[in-house]
């Protein structure tokens, strides 16, 4: 017995020691948030005050000190994320993760993101370059003080267990600048639609492919800028088949801020003071991006103690770790928000190439060729030959077997505005310091990529909107489908002048709404920005809600928050009556009187979305493959809305059966499938079904969260959380019908700015400010976010104060 007791004591001590070692290892990289620390290179001390959510507000006397401190703080909270981001943009992920990321590296090296950033660096305003360099100084000061992997991030310790050790290189201005390419890639607009059209053309004739891409419903849903026209709409796109494998390769590029399976977008709107309780404008923004842990955003305040020429910043908002400044937010004079404009800025060019040349206008032109060397952890280096034409790099070279396209084409090149040097970084800093509408518009002049809708409000009561981005003009065609490059017929001849891009100041209705809907009718504008807009369901819902709230009385911050969290989808008005005609299942009563809202505890929402999912699968998956299959969303609302009026349309027929099915057959089958699935998953009583039991958000670590190793995933992932909303509701928690109901994209943050009283402004992230697993601010905002609540954007109390000294 004594021996047993002693053994148990020894075992208990060993377990305790092991637990203490784990706790110590986990806590090692947590940031110092109180006291003093040295930051060499400062001209004077800088103060970092963190509020109850851990959000840092930085106070300095010069711009250089301010951005050096931001670099230090970003590294404190998110250095692993920053390091992975620069490996991503340089096509060097395989140095960390081995052969598993070779495809990603090949595609990114082929496009040459970092090479383009190298060309951009000398084009920047000297002040921008100074800000980037100051930021790098702060990051490198933190790196010098944390020279052990255990002090930097738990991820480095876990990576070391696999035999991969890495010594982070010093941070540079180029590392920050290259991140803008990743942002542009995830917001690359209609390239996935081009590839999906090609996949559809593999199995369908052109007229049926066109059915899957209905025009924007200008008669029912709004444009951002008013304007009507009587010009012709787009003709049918001539779509080449056989590019599905290329789409798979491009999809391998890791989604940095986007979402697998679609669903990215955003809402923003601004209301004039004539309609608000404060008498000044209110501005709301909630970008819909891929969910990751940590969130893509890092909340921060950057405050010059005296705002002037030497230090012109007093800005609070959402930043990207690795990039100085604020991307979305407000300063002491103006506020702004972004949604994706979605212009067509990418073209796939079908090419006829041999080993050294490509064809142009009947002649052979030498290919531009370079060799890239990719280092691979645990393996031998890989050499990649990159070939380029005047239409861009040949992205099909990443495929083992190449491509065989129409008319003798054997390669595909990518032309993209982000692969041409630009000055978007200049634009961000100018936006941070803009004081009025003219300065705001001028700041956006160099916002080349990605094209964005930018809403505006200022303390003088003005509201407005500006479309940004370098949008190409084509010699012919509209860019909706890959086109032969050898003819030169579809070459780019220039870009739309910035002064000709749509904008509006103080519109008569007293508000501006953007939700990835059409900016303006192309027939009125004269030039098509794109034809692949979101179809306007969210925009129309926001306008309807604002009209109702304005009619009730003055709008306040709380009203704006309720609109952001609205979960009704108008397509329910079309789907529910169609289902009701054929539904005699036990769940039929759920949809009677349902208002279309998608609360997490809603039984009708669970049933309606299950029917919708199975209707999509039943109706389209028999004839479509790959990317052409429906993921859901408002384009598919429009497709099915039209089909519901044509019960004999061929799409209703299941080509895998000998019978010829009609609309009602497919509706009955979808009802049966939905009932069977929900009964199995949620029980036999329809009243007990809950949307949030299907529609769950798993906060997945961006790099190690899908390792397949359960203990590692336990360390870094959080959730799942039941959430409300759905794809193309205002509360746009997206999901992919091909996969299931799990959340793929979210309102990544929510922000409401009161121009009368910045102290009344509100915000929330969908995770937290920290990138360190088990830190108190790793996912502490998720519960607040999921309930549709927000936090003070300016908390007057500081929970922690850190002084940075030179």
From TrEMBL:
It holds the Pfam family Penicil_amidase. It comes from the Bacteria. SUPFAM superfamilies: N-terminal nucleophile aminohydrolases (Ntn hydrolases). The keyword Cell membrane does not apply. Binds 1 Ca(2+) ion per dimer. GO terms for biological process: antibiotic biosynthetic process. The active site is at residue 266. One of its GO terms (molecular function) is hydrolase activity, acting on carbon-nitrogen (but not peptide) bonds, in linear amides. Keywords: Calcium, Hydrolase, Metal-binding, Zymogen. Ca(2+) binds at residues 194, 344, 347. Its cofactor is Ca(2+). Coiled coil: none annotated. The keyword Cytoplasm does not apply. Belongs to the peptidase S45 family. This is Penicillin amidase. It comes from Pseudonocardia hydrocarbonoxydans.
């Amino acid at each position: 017995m004594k021996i047993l007791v002693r053994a148990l004591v020894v075992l208990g001590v060993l377990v305790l020691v092991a637990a203490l070692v784990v706790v110590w290892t986990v806590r090692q990289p947590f940031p110092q948030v109180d006291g003093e620390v040295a930051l060499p290179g400062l001209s004077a001390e800088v103060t970092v005050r963190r509020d109850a959510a851990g959000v840092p507000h930085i106070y300095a006397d010069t711009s250089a000190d301010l951005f050096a401190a931001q670099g230090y703080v970003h590294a404190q909270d998110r250095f692993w994320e920053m390091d992975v981001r620069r490996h991503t943009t340089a096509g060097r992920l395989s140095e960390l993760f081995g052969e598993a990321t070779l495809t990603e590296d090949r595609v990114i090296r082929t496009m040459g993101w970092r090479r383009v950033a190298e060309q951009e660096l000398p084009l920047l305003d000297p002040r921008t370059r100074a800000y980037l360099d100051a930021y790098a100084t702060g990051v490198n000061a933190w790196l010098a003080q944390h020279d052990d992997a255990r002090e930097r991030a738990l991820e480095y310790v876990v990576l070391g267990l696999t035999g991969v050790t890495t010594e982070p290189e010093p941070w540079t201005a180029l590392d920050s600048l290259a991140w803008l390419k990743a942002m542009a890639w995830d917001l690359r607009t209609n390239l996935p639609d081009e590839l999906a059209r090609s996949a559809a053309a593999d199995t369908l004739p052109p007229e049926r492919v066109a059915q899957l891409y209905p025009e924007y419903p200008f008669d029912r849903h709004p444009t951002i800028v008013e304007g009507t026209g009587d010009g012709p709409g787009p003709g049918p796109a001539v779509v080449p088949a056989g590019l599905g494998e290329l789409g798979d390769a491009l999809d391998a590029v890791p989604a940095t801020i986007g979402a697998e399976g679609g669903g990215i977008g955003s809402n923003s709107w601004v209301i004039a003071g004539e309609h608000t309780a404060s008498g000044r404008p209110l501005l709301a923004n909630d970008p819909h991006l891929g969910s990751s842990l940590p969130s893509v955003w890092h909340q921060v305040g950057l405050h010059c103690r005296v705002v002037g020429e030497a230090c012109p910043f007093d800005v609070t908002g959402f930043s990207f770790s690795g990039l100085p400044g604020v991307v979305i937010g407000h300063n002491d004079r103006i506020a702004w928000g972004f949604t994706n404009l979605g212009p067509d800025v990418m073209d796939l060019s079908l090419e006829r190439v041999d080993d050294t040349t490509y064809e142009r206008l009947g002649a052979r032109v030498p290919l531009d060729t370079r060799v890239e060397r990719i280092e691979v952890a645990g393996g031998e280096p890989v050499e990649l030959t990159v070939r380029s034409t005047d239409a861009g790099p040949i992205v099909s070279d990443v495929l083992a077997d190449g491509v065989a396209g129409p008319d003798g084409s054997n390669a595909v090149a990518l032309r993209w505005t982000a692969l041409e040097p630009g000055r978007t970084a200049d634009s961000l800093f100018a936006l941070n310091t803009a004081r009025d509408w003219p300065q705001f518009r001028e700041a956006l002049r160099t916002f080349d990529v990605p094209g964005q809708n930018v809403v505006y409000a200022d303390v003088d009561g003005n509201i407005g909107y500006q479309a940004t981005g370098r949008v190409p003009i084509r010699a012919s065609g509209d860019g909706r489908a890959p086109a032969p490059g050898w003819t030169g017929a579809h070459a780019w001849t220039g870009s739309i002048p910035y002064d000709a891009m749509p904008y509006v100041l103080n519109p008569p209705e007293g508000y501006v709404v953007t939700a990835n809907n059409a900016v303006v009718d192309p027939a009125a504008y004269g030039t098509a920005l794109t034809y692949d807009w979101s179809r306007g369901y969210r925009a129309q819902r926001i306008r309807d809600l604002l009209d109702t709230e304005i009619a009730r009385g003055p709008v306040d911050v709380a009203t704006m928050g309720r609109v952001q969290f609205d979960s009704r989808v108008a397509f329910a008005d079309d789907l529910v009556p169609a289902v009701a005609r054929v539904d005699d299942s036990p769940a039929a009563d759920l949809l009677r009187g349902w208002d279309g809202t998608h609360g997490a505890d809603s039984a009708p929402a669970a049933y309606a979305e299950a029917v919708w999912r199975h209707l999509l699968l039943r109706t389209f998956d028999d004839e479509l493959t790959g990317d052409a299959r429906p993921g859901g969303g408002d384009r598919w609302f429009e497709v099915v809305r039209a089909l519901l009026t044509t019960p004999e349309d061929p799409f209703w027929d299941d080509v895998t059966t000998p019978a010829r099915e009609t609309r009602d057959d497919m509706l009955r089958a979808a009802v049966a499938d939905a009932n069977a699935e929900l009964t199995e998953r949620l029980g036999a009583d329809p009243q007990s079904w809950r949307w949030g039991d299907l529609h769950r958000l798993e906060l997945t670590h961006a790099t190690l969260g899908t390792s397949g190793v359960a203990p590692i995933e336990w360390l870094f992932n959080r959730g799942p959380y039941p959430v409300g909303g759905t794809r193309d509701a205002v509360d746009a928690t997206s999901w992919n019908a091909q996969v299931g109901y799990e959340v793929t994209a979210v309102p990544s943050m929510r922000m409401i700015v009161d121009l009368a009283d910045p102290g009344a402004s509100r915000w929330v992230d969908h995770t937290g400010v920290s990138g360190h697993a088990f830190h108190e601010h790793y996912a502490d905002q998720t519960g607040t976010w999921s309930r549709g609540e927000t936090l003070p954007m300016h908390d007057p109390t500081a929970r922690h104060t850190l002084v940075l000294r030179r």
